[in-house]
Design goal:
Helices cover 43% and strands 16% of the residues. It contains 15 helices and eight strands. α7 (182-190) runs parallel beside α9 (218-236), α13 runs parallel beside α15 and α14 runs antiparallel to α15. It has two domains: 6-209, Spore Coat Polysaccharide Biosynthesis Protein SpsA, Chain A (Alpha-Beta Complex), CATH 3.90.550.10; 217-300, no CATH class.
């Protein structure tokens, strides 16, 4: 069989709502030399039927239908099965602009020292309408990427990423310990072996909605990202990465032992807590206890009384009272 230029990797779980539109945006790419791996990760809705429907119409689609194993296992399976030297990530709820693949593969051809290239995004809501989002765009140079790591700015939009398969495989693929932030951890590991950036064009329509993974698992995602950053700092300092062979991250209070020195758990809480203040999901799950612990450890209290009021609006009066008591303790 002829080897395609690109392997598109899409994992989907119960994604019937937006899947057809996402698939069609890939099939409509101006650059058409690709295979399209769509892995159904044990869906219980109409996802498998939709995948088979499009596979019957377009021979570039390689459907993989199996039981549920989770996103990281699915991503690594597609990396192993891909035939092309270049991988284009895609999620089942986003939409590619028609020029996405041709722009990204041209960038990689012109910049052999870059292993990963993303794109800027156009943010949309569940209905496809503009979604207002403040913050920086993704960095457009490797130097900007390294600065973004230190400032906590966005790095690369995962479903908009295109990368060299061999470079990702050389660092051990996606790591199982970093559920819900597996892309952030991968970018940090790649930063020491290749260059990464994004094209300053909005070639991906990135969807935001209440039930997406980043909303449902916000606290776990931010804790994992904080641990991944500290592992990155260990590697920069020439020390072994204590997370390298983990299947799952330990509880925060066990991180001092994992890293072999005191203060790591406290650093993680300090890095995570400010990002939880506006998240309804985080203030309703374990993120609330993390926030209270952070305050008891002397964390900054700016704006915390507004969080008390926010909890009342979220219908959490007991947690509002607990946070108020923590703040009153001084």
């Amino acid at each position: 069989m002829t080897i395609p230029a690109i392997s598109v990797a899409m994992s989907v779980y119960n994604g019937e709502r937006f899947l057809a539109e996402s698939i069609e945006s890939v099939l409509a790419q101006g650059f058409g030399d690709f295979e399209f791996l769509i892995l159904d990760d044990g869906s219980r809705d109409a996802t498998p039927d939709i995948v088979h429907h499009y596979a019957d119409r377009d021979s570039r689609i390689r459907p993989i239908i199996r039981e549920n194993r989770g996103l990281i296992a699915s991503l690594n399976e597609m990396l192993a099965r891909a035939r092309a030297p270049i991988i284009a990530r895609m999620d089942a709820d986003d939409i590619c602009r028609p020029q996405r693949f041709e722009k990204q593969i041209a960038f990689l051809a012109d910049h052999p020292d870059y292993g990963v290239v993303g794109t800027w995004t156009e943010d949309i809501d569940e209905a496809g309408a503009p979604y207002s989002l403040s913050g920086n765009d993704h960095p457009t140079s490797h130097e900007g990427f390294l600065r973004a790591i230190e400032t906590g700015s966005p790095l690369i939009c995962h479903p908009a990423a295109m990368f060299r398969r061999e470079v990702v495989r050389s660092v051990g693929d996606y790591h199982a310990a970093f559920r819900h932030c597996e892309d952030y951890d991968l970018w940090l590991r790649l930063a020491s072996v290749t260059k990464l950036c994004s094209i300053p064009e909005r070639l991906m329509r990135y969807r935001h909605y209440e039930n997406q993974v980043s909303s449902r698992h916000a606290t776990e995602q931010q804790i994992g990202a904080a641990v991944s950053y500290l592992a990155y700092r260990e590697r920069l300092a020439g020390r072994p990465d204590p997370t390298a062979n983990l299947e799952r991250l330990p509880p925060i209070d066990e991180l001092d032992a994992l890293f072999g020195r005191e203060g790591i758990a406290r650093q993680v809480r300090a890095r995570v807590a400010p990002g939880l203040l506006y998240s309804r999901a985080s203030l309703r799950d374990d993120g609330f206890d993390l926030l209270c612990r952070y305050l008891r450890e002397g964390g900054r209290r700016d704006g915390m009384w507004r969080v008390v009021a926010r909890l009342v609006r979220f219908g959490e009066p007991v947690r509002a009272a607990r946070l108020a008591a923590t703040l009153a303790m001084g």
